[in-house]
Specification:
The chain is an alpha/beta fold. It is 16% helix and 17% strand.
Length: 376
């Protein structure tokens, strides 16, 4: 099944094996896990609990969104503009240069059309109505970040892809010409050649794999996108790591910091941030304007769908974070980000997950143990 992805071979595999992060069988995180990231009292949910347990796992109807296409026709006044489209998909505009992060328009975070976590929030813009982009950025190969039908559609456009080591094997097999694929190891950079835009891969604390047999067979990364005037940090998926301080020192400061806040569990604290750890991470990164992503689209953990937003709203006021929480599809410019947060996600009823959406299992739902399922 093509959507499961493909293993690297030949020159691509040799380059992966030359990485200091390669263990002989796969990639590893560079530094030990920070202490106390996992709740010692937390129990890892089983797949049965994940698929059928919990409360308020998704809203009963689609959330409000805005159609950004009219705004996109005009260049941003300050040069840098951001539009969160859902989950970790964001359109970044740098003085007219467009970068699209982790594009996922598919109906499920899954290799098959009828099973796996189902999207509860439509994208505010259909993929075929998206404007031309100058670069597609993909952090790692989990299903909610690397989506087979979306890549197949984007492969028909003449656009370069920048991603982590090994992920290019999937892209090339799905129709992206090899000449348009750049794979980066941490601290390596890619120059677009237009507008002085540079993309640099940076550390993150996570894992990879689209099947049980391909765990950590590709690298995972955060990314910094920088021009002469602006810089944006994008976390991909990650746990809290002191490497953020090094990223700030080497690649900062940042106008905008995009961090994942949803799809987390107390038992997964070393590989996903969640809202509390995200606030610590944004401080390590220098307190640029903070856009939370990786929530509001899929139910990938036991928490209520709006828990990340509510926790950030509660804790953010007492932190130094310059938090922004725009509606999906609402473009905003970090230099003119609103100081007041309007909780647009409230007053939407929620439901538990129906039994028809997912398979039943008794295995652990720890995402480190079951790639392609919860926690990605």
């Amino acid at each position: 099944m093509k959507s499961l992805g493909y293993r690297a071979h030949g020159a691509r595999l040799e380059r992966m094996r030359a990485s200091p992060l390669w263990t002989g069988t796969g990639f590893r995180n560079a530094y030990p896990i920070l202490p106390d990231l996992r709740d010692p009292n937390a129990t890892t949910p089983s797949l049965t609990e994940f698929y059928f347990g919990g409360h308020r796992r998704r809203p009963a109807q689609p959330l409000p969104t805005l159609d950004p296409r009219e705004v996109w026709r005009r260049r941003p006044n300050t040069g840098l503009r951001t539009t969160w489209l859902g989950h970790s998909t964001v359109l970044l505009e740098f003085d007219g240069i467009r970068v699209l992060t982790d594009p996922v328009w598919g109906a499920r975070a899954s290799p098959v059309p009828l099973l796996g976590p189902k999207r509860f929030q439509p994208m505010p813009v259909p993929l075929d109505a998206m404007p031309d982009v100058d670069l597609v950025l993909i952090s790692h190969d989990h299903y909610d970040h690397l989506d087979y039908p979306t890549i197949r559609a984007l492969a028909r456009r003449t656009v370069p892809f920048v991603t982590s080591l090994g992920v290019g094997a999937h892209l090339e097999a799905w129709g992206v010409p090899s000449a348009r694929i750049t794979e980066l190891e941490w601290w390596e950079s890619y120059e677009l050649g237009t507008g002085g835009l540079r993309v640099t891969a940076a550390p993150s604390q996570h894992f990879s794999g689209r099947t049980l047999n391909t765990r950590n067979s590709t690298l995972w990364s955060s990314f910094v996108v920088r021009t002469e005037r602006h810089a944006v940090f994008f976390s991909g998926d990650t746990g809290l790591t002191n490497e953020y301080a090094e990223i700030r020192e080497r690649l900062g400061p940042f106008d905008l910091v995009m961090l994942e806040v949803g799809g987390w569990d107390p038992a997964w604290g070393d590989m996903h941030l969640g809202p509390r750890h995200a606030l610590k991470a944004v401080e390590l990164l220098g307190n640029g304007v903070f856009l939370p992503v990786h929530w509001g689209t899929f139910s990938l953990a036991m928490h209520a769908w709006d828990e990340p937003a509510e926790t950030l709203l509660e804790l953010g006021a007492a932190s130094a974070a310059r938090l922004v929480m725009p509606m999906m599809g609402a473009p905003f410019e970090p230099a003119a980000a609103p100081e007041r947060i309007v909780p647009w996600w409230r007053d939407v009823a929620c439901v538990d997950l129906p039994s028809s959406d997912s398979p039943v299992g008794r295995r652990s739902a720890d995402p480190a143990a079951t790639p392609g399922t919860p926690g990605h």
